[in-house]
Each structure stands twice: as structure tokens, then as C-alpha cells.
Amino acid sequence: PGGLARLYAALPTPFDAQEGFAETCQRSLARFVLRQGIDGLYVGGSTGESLMQSVEERREGLRVVADEARGQAKLIGHVGAISTRDAVALARACAEAGYDAVSAIPPIYFPHGKDAITGYYRDIVEAAQGLPLVIYNIPAMSSVSFSLAELDRLLAIPGVIGIKQTSIDMYQMEQLRRRYPGTLLLNGYDEVFLAGMVSGANGGIGSTYNVMGGRYRRMQQALAAGQVEEAMRLQSACNEVIDLLVQAGVFPGLKFMLHHMGVIASPRTRAPLLPVAEQFHAPLRQTADTLMA
Ligand code: NAY
């Protein structure tokens, strides 16, 4: 699938103490991820707190990351929004900024029928000026579930090249791979990265790649070399960190670690996300130190 089958760090959007966009930190973070050997960036997704930002802010974030990393990594811009109009504006911005692909959650909150959702994706493809589209399937957060037949319909839209499958349903991953041998299938939950790859994913998008990029890269290599036990060991090492992040809150927890690592200037997330509770500070610092050692 056009060199897009690889690992993408789902980039956080750094903020300053007033919750404003911290451009310099965004650039540092992109470079920090690339140094870990991750050559894909997924920009403005869940991890980027995109749904708490205005379209103008999201456009600026997309532009800055492309400016920093274009040519050094494949770039997928997340453009999903509640209205087609906003998603389309962001898809245009991705095309102008030199992205390699766009991706979108379905329109959320209102329970749209599948015709409306198909129309939304068609309009995004049209606005993306030739960039391919990766459907972002994340039923736990979007509250939109797609049956296999419904995914068939979305994958049949010209320009749709694959799915970011953020689900622990490995049966559906395997079914998708069996139905679509050549399609881009990106694993979305880091805690089941290995299981996803074994079930047919040919890459992944993950928030925890920001701090453990090397581990995921080595896991992928170990699996390709048939070293399953080594891959399992690496998954467990990642999951010890993920267990802590899930308890502390994944997005605030990641920013807390990145701040402690000196990559970003503030751990601030945008309200209503809460800062990391005091009890997790010491374990997160210790984990960050171990990862940096
Ligand atoms: C996104 O859009 O930023 C992502 O979906 C990246 C993938 C992450 N999914 C969510 C919903 O956060 O990395 C995962 C996730 O944080 C991790 O597996 C911990 O659950």
C-alpha cells in the first residue's frame, strides 16, 4: 500500500500553561520521535486532542508538523470532525501541507445513518486532492460500530486505501485481512500490537510509540524474523508502561512523561482532561527515566 504500511506515532499536541499551541515543543516532539527510528507520524488524532481544538488550531498543528518532518517520515493527517464541512477544510489543509494521506473518525455525537457516513468519507476524499484516505475505526470512542459489510462499503469508495483498526477484536482484524489481502490495516491499540500484527495488520499507529518507539520497531523486526518469544517479551515490556499510563490517563500521562524527559515544556492537556493525579507522578517519572536510560 504505497509505502504507508509502517509504524506511526500518534503525536500529542503540546500546549503552554494557558492551553495554547506550543509550536516549538511540537517541533521538538516530532524530532524526538524520528530519533527513535519511527518514520511515520499520525497528526491531529485522538492523542493530539484534536477534538478539543478549533479547525484553525488543527490546521496550524497539521502545518507545523509537516513543515518539521516532511521528507523524513510518512505523514497521515487526521481530519475527522463533527461536520463534513470542517473535515473537508482540514483535508484540503493536509493536501496543501504535503501530507501522504488523510484519516478520519466517523462523524460523532449524532447517530447518523450509514449513507450519511459514506457521504462524509466521499466528500473528504474529494477535498483531499488525490491523497488517499484511511478510515479510522474506533468504536469504543466514536460509538459508531461498523459491521464487515459496512466496512466493505467504505473500502469500496475510490481513494479509500485502508483502515486504522482501533479495536481489540482480533477476529475482525483477521477477517479484514482475509477479505482484503492487499489493503492497509493499521493496528490502533498498542497493548495488542503483536496480536494485531499476527492477525493481519501491516503497521500500526500508537500514542505510546512517542516514548517507546524503539521497542515497537524491534517488536516488528523480531516478528518478521520469526523471533516470537522476543516479540512477546517486548510487548510485555511495553504493556507494563501502558498499564501505568491507562491508570494515570493515557494522554496526560504521556505528556507528563515527555515533559519529564525534557521534550516538551509543559505537561498541560486541554480541559476537561485533568492533569495527572499526584499518586502517579513518581511512577511516571521513574518509568520515563528508565526509558531514557
Ligand atoms: C490516535 O488517534 O491518536 C490514536 O488512536 C492512537 C492510538 C491510541 N488510541 C487511543 C484511542 O488513544 O495508542 C492508542 C492508545 O492510546 C493506547 O493503545 C493505550 O490504550
Describe what you observe in this structure:
This protein is globular. The chain has helices at residues 23-35, 55-69, 84-97, 114-127, 139-142, 148-155, 170-179, 193-198, 209-224, 228-248, 250-260, 281-292, and strands spanning 7-10, 40-43, 74-78, 101-104, 133-137, 160-165, 184-187, 203-206. The model has no long low-confidence stretch (mean pLDDT 97). It is built from 12 helices and 8 strands. The N and C termini lie far apart (36 Å). With 293 residues, it is of the alpha/beta class. Helix 3 (84-97) runs parallel beside helix 4 (114-127). An 8-stranded parallel barrel has the order 1-2-3-4-5-6-7-8, surrounded by 6 helices.
What is shown here, in short?
The protein is built from 12 helices and 8 strands. It has helices at residues 23-35, 55-69, 84-97, 114-127, 139-142, 148-155, 170-179, 193-198, 209-224, 228-248, 250-260, 281-292; strands spanning 7-10, 40-43, 74-78, 101-104, 133-137, 160-165, 184-187, 203-206. The termini are far apart.
Give the arrangement of secondary structure elements.
Blueprint: E1 7-10, H1 23-35, E2 40-43, H2 55-69, E3 74-78, H3 84-97, E4 101-104, H4 114-127, E5 133-137, H5 139-142, H6 148-155, E6 160-165, H7 170-179, E7 184-187, H8 193-198, E8 203-206, H9 209-224, H10 228-248, H11 250-260, H12 281-292
Parallel strand pairs: 1-2, 1-8, 2-3, 3-4, 4-5, 5-6, 6-7, 7-8
Bound molecules: 6,7,8,9-tetrahydroxy-5-methylcarboxamido-2-oxononanoic acid.
